[in-house]
User: Which sequence fits this backbone?
């Protein structure tokens, strides 16, 4: 009889245990503490495509059997963008060979990107003698779908090539020809057959398809129907990634959520935000932009807060590496979005690698490296009291 | 499919044989090795077998099934039911001091039927035995002694499956032997066999991953490097103190020439392992531990994603807490147990920054197990683990329960 009660007790325990076992699993980090995840409002079909892109971006590791190299920089998209955040010197890209708007003079010697690694038995590329080069730390790739949908008109409205308002800041867009596989936006504003590009350190990629195809090809050594040229041999070869996979990755990048600001109502953060505008950081790092119409309803007509104007600015001689892309000057850099800045250490191994090549190891050091059009803002920051500096830094870390 | 035909035929033969002799009196349980406290190297024979009448053939095997509910950082795939493996043993005494044993494993999730072990042993002297066939390279202890029903945990140790290749078998030949002296026991094994290939540093795991070579079935016909893999182990046991094993496995792993043309440098792989097990007297606490170091020559111009040094291991502590008649099973045992494990797949620092590379994992797994008899185990485990990526970013945290049954049959 006693045994019967034991059996009943065991069964009850098992049922309760199975129902409650998930309570003993690690909880999800707060949504504003992570960069990855989709935007809200995707339908089921879009969610499936997001997941397919997620797998291709983060889980698909290329090997020699699947097309890696033979020379390359990284073995997967996720190698450069851990958790969809910024990269580190480990996967920093080196571009070389272009010093002005006449184009890259070293394309026949492996330009524009150095493939500094090689499969066993192969030799990686070297920077050709005499070629100017620059190092580019991989950026975070969240919120890019919003940035892609900022209209040319809005970008041009922020530009001030002749510094007509006399504030010392004169942002310009990077105009460049489109590659054959890229279609211009319906509301594009071309000039002499060239279009406004917006992605990358020099704003030399037009849209996320352009960026994705180039990254597969130049970073991993993967050919596609969009760009069939093998970086090792220079020959056109069969595609090593399918069109569907490329489109899924583009969709994934378009629908990654925008970084969410933390501690928005903290008094010190609010004070920092005010100072950010007062010392003219916001003149280039525009806090707020809006999207146009998108076939992805969740992205249409949205206001978002990237802290960039997507324009090129003179950043001074200290940041002039002598290399450039498109119509940008060697000393011009596209204003990088600041959203997600405070989460950078979560993808950079617990530390900061800021500015275009990761040379700044803290936000304050990055500010101090600002020159050219940003020199006045840097000087304004230097003159702030320590309390105000702390507030400003706290605001930046909240982004 | 080709692989499965002989297996199916073999199974059919045994099935018809057993059916024809259904009288249970003809199915005799073979006594286990009578030697008290055998070495890990004896595990291949130290299993329950059933003899069929007067046939020299004995049969055995084990099966493992699990339920699990794990979550990583708040994301879970929910309830999962897993048929891990069904393993069949077929042993036969060909003549006096010549034995054959095979171990065939079915892993439905891997869509794999594999011959893990199929070798003939010829004894010239207890200290000199020749083994040839599909051998299991004796690196560490787990590779030698991995039968599910012997363990209190549903999962195999991470270091054994994800760093060292567990159940890593190759075609090869070698010698082994044992020597007894009162409380002491000494054993050795030394094999040359086929081995690894380039996939250990060129794989979809994005890290140096020795188990990647298991997918290369060509190794049973043609070695990538054309040079044999050397595996050796010595073990010493004192019946009161326990067993200590030292093992080594190494050789050229890569395809450095093809059709007589040199296409790469020769690159070495070297693995060292130490293992230990003991039972603390009176308390009957069983402790088993293993640690291994891997060195792989990778080209300096290759990506640091694939490291050239690895290390990792585990320790299991098993404490019987109840031993009595439970539900009519005499001498049924309830154990509590704990496994702690760690693997670093990429030991060292980044060339560019001088900071430590991550790519490591640690896990702790408390468990409770119930053994109605020594040949079957019901086990409930809770796993908590943290895994870092190569950049040593904040770790992914995984936790959850496993429940499983594993039994010899």
Assistant:
């Amino acid at each position: 009889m006693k045994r019967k009660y034991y059996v009943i007790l065991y069964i009850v325990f098992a049922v309760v245990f199975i129902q409650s076992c998930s309570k003993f699993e690690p909880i999800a980090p707060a949504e504003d503490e992570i960069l990855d995840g989709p935007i809200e409002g995707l339908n089921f079909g879009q969610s499936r495509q997001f997941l397919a892109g997620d797998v291709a971006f983060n889980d698909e590791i290329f090997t020699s059997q699947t097309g890696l190299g033979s020379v390359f920089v990284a073995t997967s998209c996720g190698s450069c963008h851990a958790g969809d955040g910024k990269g580190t010197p480990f996967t920093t890209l080196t571009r070389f060979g272009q010093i002005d708007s006449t184009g890259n003079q070293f394309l026949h010697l492996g330009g524009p990107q150095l493939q500094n690694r090689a499969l066993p038995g192969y030799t990686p590329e070297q920077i050709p003698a005499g070629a100017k080069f620059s190092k580019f730390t991989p950026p975070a790739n969240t919120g890019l779908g919003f940035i892609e949908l900022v209209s040319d008109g809005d970008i041009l409205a922020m530009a001030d090539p002749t510094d007509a308002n006399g504030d010392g800041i004169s942002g310009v867009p990077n105009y460049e020809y489109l590659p054959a596989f890229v279609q211009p936006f319906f509301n594009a504003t071309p000039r002499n057959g060239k279009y406004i590009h917006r992605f990358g350190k020099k704003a030399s990629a037009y849209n996320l398809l352009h960026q994705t195809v180039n990254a597969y090809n130049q970073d991993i050594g993967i050919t596609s129907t969009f760009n069939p040229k093998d970086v090792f041999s220079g020959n056109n070869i069969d595609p090593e990634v399918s069109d569907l996979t490329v489109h899924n990755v583009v969709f994934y990048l378009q629908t990654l959520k925008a970084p969410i600001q933390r501690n928005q109502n903290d008094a010190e953060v609010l004070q920092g935000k005010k100072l950010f505008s007062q010392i003219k950081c916001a003149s280039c790092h525009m806090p707020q932009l809006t999207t146009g119409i998108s076939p992805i309803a969740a992205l249409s007509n949205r206001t978002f807060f990237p802290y960039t104007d997507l324009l090129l600015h003179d950043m001074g001689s200290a940041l002039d590496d002598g290399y450039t892309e498109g119509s940008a000057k060697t000393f011009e850099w596209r204003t990088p979005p600041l959203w997600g800045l405070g989460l950078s250490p979560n993808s950079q191994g617990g530390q900061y690698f800021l500015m275009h090549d990761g040379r700044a190891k803290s936000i304050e050091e990055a500010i101090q490296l600002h020159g050219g059009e940003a020199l006045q803002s840097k000087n304004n920051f230097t003159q702030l009291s320590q309390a105000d500096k702390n507030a400003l830094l706290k605001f930046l870390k909240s982004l | 499919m080709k692989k499965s035909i002989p297996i199916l035929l073999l199974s059919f033969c045994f099935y018809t044989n057993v059916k024809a002799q259904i009288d249970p009196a003809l199915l005799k349980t073979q006594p286990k090795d009578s030697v008290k406290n055998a070495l890990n190297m004896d595990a291949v024979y130290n299993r329950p077998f059933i003899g069929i009448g007067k046939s020299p053939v004995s049969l055995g095997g084990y099966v493992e099934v699990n339920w699990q509910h794990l979550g990583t950082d708040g994301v879970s795939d929910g309830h999962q039911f897993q048929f891990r493996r069904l393993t069949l043993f077929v042993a036969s005494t060909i003549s006096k001091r010549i034995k054959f044993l095979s171990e065939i494993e079915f892993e439905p999730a891997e869509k794999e039927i594999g011959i893990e072990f199929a070798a003939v042993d010829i004894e010239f002297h207890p200290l000199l035995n020749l083994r040839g066939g599909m051998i299991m390279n004796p690196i560490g202890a787990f590779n030698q002694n991995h039968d599910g029903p012997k363990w209190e945990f549903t999962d195999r140790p991470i270091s054994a499956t994800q760093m060292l290749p567990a159940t890593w078998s190759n075609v090869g030949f070698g010698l082994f032997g044992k020597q007894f002296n009162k409380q002491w026991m000494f054993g050795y094994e030394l094999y040359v066999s086929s081995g690894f290939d380039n996939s250990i540093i060129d794989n979809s795991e994005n890290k140096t991953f020795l188990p990647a070579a298991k997918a290369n079935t060509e190794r049973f016909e043609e070695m990538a490097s054309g040079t044999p893999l050397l595996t050796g182990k010595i073990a010493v046991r004192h019946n009161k103190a326990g067993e200590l094993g030292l093992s080594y496995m190494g050789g050229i792993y890569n395809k450095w020439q093809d059709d007589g043309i040199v296409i790469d440098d020769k690159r070495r792989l070297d693995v060292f392992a130490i293992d230990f097990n003991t039972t603390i007297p009176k308390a009957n606490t069983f402790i088993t531990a293993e640690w291994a170091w891997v060195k792989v020559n990778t080209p300096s111009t290759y990506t640091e994603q694939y490291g050239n040094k690895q290390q990792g291991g585990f320790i299991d502590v098993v404490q019987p807490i109840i031993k009595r008649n439970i539900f009519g099973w005499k001498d049924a045992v309830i154990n509590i147990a704990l496994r702690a494990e760690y693997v670093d797949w990429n030991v060292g620092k980044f060339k560019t920054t001088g900071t430590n590379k991550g790519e490591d994992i640690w896990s702790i797994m408390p468990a409770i197990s119930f053994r109605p008899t020594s040949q079957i185990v019901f086990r409930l485990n809770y796993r908590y683990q943290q895994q870092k990526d190569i950049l040593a970013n904040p770790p992914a945290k995984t936790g959850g329960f496993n429940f499983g049954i594993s039994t010899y049959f």
Q: What stands out?
A: The radius of gyration of chain B is 22 Å.
